[in-house]
Specification:
With 137 residues, the chain is of the alpha+beta class. It has one domain: Gcn5-related N-acetyltransferase (GNAT) (Aminopeptidase, 3-Layer(aba) Sandwich), CATH 3.40.630.30. 28% of the residues lie in helices and 29% in strands. It contains 5 helices and 6 strands, in the order αβββαβαβααβ. Strands 1-2-3-4-6-5 form a 6-stranded mixed sheet. Strand 3, helix 2 and strand 4 form a beta-alpha-beta unit. The radius of gyration is 14 Å and the shape is globular.
């Protein structure tokens, strides 16, 4: 996780609370270097999609979308039915993948209790949500 945290910091994204989520992170490597990552903080049937990051040198090649797709496949086995996320920079990226805007208060209490919602992500971040592709687990 230190390599993922460093990549997140480099991209200006929160990294302080990712340690407890290591089992729910997917990492992309080029050789030994971490070049992308995405995570999920699972709260029952809801999950916070968090920390999607791609190294500048490999952006624009579809890695972010592939990471989200793979996380989505994995999430079925975790019982996830709905995604939530906060973003300040990737609203268009996620909207193109079917996410819609939502008020933070629409998120379930367990999602609102995560570090991202409690202050890990700035107050100007947009809240997005959608059902997990593939339906029920």
């Amino acid at each position: 996780m230190p390599e993922v945290a460093a990549l997140l910091r480099e991209a200006g994204l929160p990294s302080e609370d990712i340690g407890g989520q290591a089992g729910r992170f997917l990492v992309a490597r080029r050789g030994a270097a971490v070049v992308g990552a995405v995570g999920a903080e699972v709260c029952g049937a809801d999950a916070l999609l968090r920390s999607l990051v791609v190294a500048p040198a490999v952006r624009g090649a579809g890695l972010g979308g592939r990471l989200v797709d793979e996380l989505e496949r994995e999430a079925g086995s975790w019982g996830v039915r709905r995604w939530w996320l906060l973003t300040t920079t990737a609203e268009r990226f996620f909207a193109a993948r079917g996410f819609r805007g939502a008020g933070r208060t629409e998120a379930p209490e367990a999602i609102r209790a995560t570090g991202q919602f409690r202050g890990g992500c700035c107050g100007s971040a947009v809240c997005l949500t959608r059902e997990r592709k593939g339906g029920a687990p």
